[in-house]
């Protein structure tokens, strides 16, 4: 297949194209509604709360309500390994991008570069493009993210030692709880007590673990599916509404914030991609196209809200952190669709 055929195949894939247009259109809609006063100043925070506390936990759990697939399980293990290893690599590499800045600013920019909004920004996009498979990989990838965000990120920005209360933030988070619950059911479903279920449409009889609620308690599974379906549109509306509240003109004059944004949405996901390709080539990892694409999109997300909050709360160049968060969000809205196209081309070319 030549380059022209690969490009045609990529740009005629309606699933990819519609995912990009949906993301951009709904974000712009949220921005327009906020600018027009249809959304008030509390809408973004309210939508964020609904997404983080209801929609994303439901999405994380229901994605695992499927038959066990050995290939996906192997991919998931590699994603978990990479989801930890990549943050160690970024801890070593990101300070190099800011070596010309003073110590505190270099530290702040490095931490903001390492941690993106993978949960709120990345997971809904991955879910809309790659379905349940991508959602599984995204949530497993986020395990390492949360561990390092609330340990390394907190220590670096606060200058304090790790506190026990951070363990609750890591493992008491509703999305993490839903992820582990779904993951354990998915992995051990053949070892759980089985229930015989007759398909109402086909009449076929099957045996499923009693916790496979998609088969054994559809009355419970269906409302969770509705909640899960809210994650993408509500997250995108919230992002747009949040952009509509901020002063883009002031942030746009900050050259450091622009430089950071390019590092965050271009250099960091590129480092992620190159290392995966290298580790795949030597046999250390065996990640497929969907799992690779998932990690790249997750790493191309803008500044994590928690990381920016650390900078503000601990007085680590709060103004820069706010400007960086805004500009990286705008940059990500542009860069992620481009990354999706690049990843689709690489997949069609057989490179990933």
TrEMBL record:
Transmembrane segments: 16-34, 46-65, 77-97, 109-130, 136-158, 170-188, 257-279, 291-312, 324-346
Membrane topology label: Multi-pass membrane protein
GO cellular component: membrane
Subcellular location: Membrane
Keywords: Cell membrane, Membrane, Transmembrane, Transmembrane helix, Transport
UniProt entry tagged with the keyword Transmembrane helix: yes
Pfam short name (any one): Mem_trans
Protein origin, superkingdom: Bacteria
GO biological process terms, semicolon-separated: transmembrane transport
Keyword Endoplasmic reticulum: no
Major place of residence: membrane
PANTHER family associated with the record: AUXIN EFFLUX CARRIER FAMILY PROTEIN (PTHR36838), SLR1864 PROTEIN (PTHR36838:SF1)
Protein name as catalogued: Malate permease
Organism of this sequence: Suicoccus acidiformans
Lineage of origin: Bacteria, Bacillati, Bacillota, Bacilli, Lactobacillales
């Amino acid at each position: 297949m030549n380059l022209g055929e690969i490009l045609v195949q990529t740009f005629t894939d309606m699933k990819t194209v519609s995912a990009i247009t949906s993301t951009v259109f709904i974000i712009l809609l949220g921005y327009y509604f906020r600018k027009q006063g249809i959304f008030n100043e509390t809408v973004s925070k309210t939508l964020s709360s609904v997404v983080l506390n209801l929609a994303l936990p439901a999405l994380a759990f229901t994605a695992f309500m499927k038959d066990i697939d050995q290939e996906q399980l192997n991919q998931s293990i590699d994603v978990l390994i990479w989801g930890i290893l990549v943050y160690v690599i970024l801890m070593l590499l990101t300070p190099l991008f800011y070596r010309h800045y003073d110590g505190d600013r270099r530290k702040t920019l490095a931490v903001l570069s390492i941690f993106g909004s993978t949960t709120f920004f990345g997971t809904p996009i991955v879910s809309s493009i790659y379905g349940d498979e991508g959602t599984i990989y995204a949530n497993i990838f986020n395990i390492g993210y949360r561990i390092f965000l609330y340990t390394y990120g907190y220590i670096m920005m606060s200058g304090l030692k790790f506190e026990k209360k951070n363990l609750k933030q890591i493992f008491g988070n509703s999305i993490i709880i839903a992820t582990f619950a779904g993951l354990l059911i998915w992995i051990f479903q053949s070892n759980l007590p089985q229930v015989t279920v007759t398909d109402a449409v086909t009449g076929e009889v099957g045996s499923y673990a009693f916790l496979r609620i998609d088969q054994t308690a559809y009355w419970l599974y269906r409302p969770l599916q509705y909640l899960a379906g809210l994650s993408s549109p509500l997250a995108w509306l919230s992002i747009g509404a949040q952009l509509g509240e901020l002063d883009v003109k002031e942030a746009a004059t900050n050259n450091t914030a622009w430089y950071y944004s390019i590092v965050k949405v271009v250099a960091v996901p590129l480092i992620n991609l190159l290392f995966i390709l290298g580790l795949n080539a030597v046999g250390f990892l065996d990640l497929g196209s969907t799992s690779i694409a998932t990690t790249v999109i997750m790493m191309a997300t803008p500044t994590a809200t928690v990381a920016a909050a650390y900078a503000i709360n601990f007085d680590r160049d709060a103004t820069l952190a706010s400007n960086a968060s805004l500009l990286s969000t705008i940059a990500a809205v542009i860069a992620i669709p481009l990354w999706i196209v690049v990843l689709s081309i690489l997949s069609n070319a057989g490179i990933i």
